[in-house]
């Protein structure tokens, strides 16, 4: 079972985040994913391995191809962690709104 740390390490890399974004649009083969990057296919495969081990993607073999699928439940720990900080964002946005409203009345 992957740990939360594995997930954070997996999403720390921008290439892996892009792979997750692509898979959020639909399942894709490793070859199709590799076409989106300026790196070798084996390098993309290594990124996919990290994502798979973190529980963020799954693979299914279809003949000689491997089709990758996003496993959004793997991001649940990250969502829980971020939800704690959302309360700070809401307070800041509210303060910004009040500031902007005050600027409009001053003009």
From TrEMBL:
<dbReference type="InterPro" id="IPR036388">
    <property type="entry name" value="WH-like_DNA-bd_sf"/>
</dbReference>
<dbReference type="GO" id="GO:0003700">
    <property type="term" value="F:DNA-binding transcription factor activity"/>
</dbReference>
<dbReference type="InterPro" id="IPR001845">
    <property type="entry name" value="HTH_ArsR_DNA-bd_dom"/>
</dbReference>
<dbReference type="InterPro" id="IPR011991">
    <property type="entry name" value="ArsR-like_HTH"/>
</dbReference>
<protein>
    <submittedName>
        <fullName>ArsR family transcriptional regulator</fullName>
    </submittedName>
</protein>
<dbReference type="Pfam" id="PF01022">
    <property type="entry name" value="HTH_5"/>
</dbReference>
<feature type="domain" description="HTH arsR-type">
    <location>
        <begin position="1"/>
        <end position="90"/>
    </location>
</feature>
<dbReference type="InterPro" id="IPR036390">
    <property type="entry name" value="WH_DNA-bd_sf"/>
</dbReference>
